[in-house]
């Protein structure tokens, strides 16, 4: 970031903080409490959590306001690189006794003209039915409910998994304390994360939410969009399925190219 850009953005943020202090008549005890909370966030290692939950949605909405393809949303803190590419029957790794209703996700990856994109990659990850992510919850085996699928020549994909559960951000740290103090919901609705990418196209970072889950209207991360909410259909065997089309826009040409 250039010096002029830093001065513009940081200077404006500080100016707005100063204005809020005057507007709300912030006292010294309140300032000291805020200062200690900021220190606590750093000591607890929750700055990534704070930024992902309370700030990223605004950056994402602004950065992608002119997106031509499907709706995106925040990446969040739980993505891990290096997930395996799955082979048929394209099932996210899971425990033998994995809890949760079986879920089949199918669909197509297309360009902005509706033409199928062969060889597109969908990096998929999610919480388990209890709301925990592998790699972040010590009780879970490494790598479960994470994997990649590749579209066929017809642009179609499928992946088998289980319905994830909603979950809260960590409640024992300063971010959880902030929610409690402000009376904000700490919950995230049930969702599946995806990064959809293909050569020559802008990658799509998104999440798919379920209409039956709680907290759609008060997602702590502000990441829910109407176009990302689906209604899975229950099958005769008790499993669920839904079909979703991802539309990728062409890769942007750098301004100095």
TrEMBL record:
Its cofactor is Fe(3+). InterPro entries: 1_2-CTD_multi_dom, Catechol_dOase_N, Intradiol_dOase_C, Intradiol_dOase_core, Intradiol_RC_Dioxygenase. GO terms for biological process: catechol-containing compound metabolic process. Residues 105-133 form the Intradiol ring-cleavage dioxygenases domain. The keyword Cell wall biogenesis/degradation does not apply. Keywords: Dioxygenase, Iron, Metal-binding, Oxidoreductase. Gene3D superfamilies: Aromatic compound dioxygenase, Catechol 1,2-dioxygenase multimerisation domain-like. SUPFAM superfamilies: Aromatic compound dioxygenase (SSF49482). The keyword DNA damage does not apply. It comes from the Bacteria. Its EC number is 1.13.11.-. One of its GO terms (molecular function) is ferric iron binding. Belongs to the intradiol ring-cleavage dioxygenase family. This is Chlorocatechol 1,2-dioxygenase. It comes from Capillimicrobium parvum.
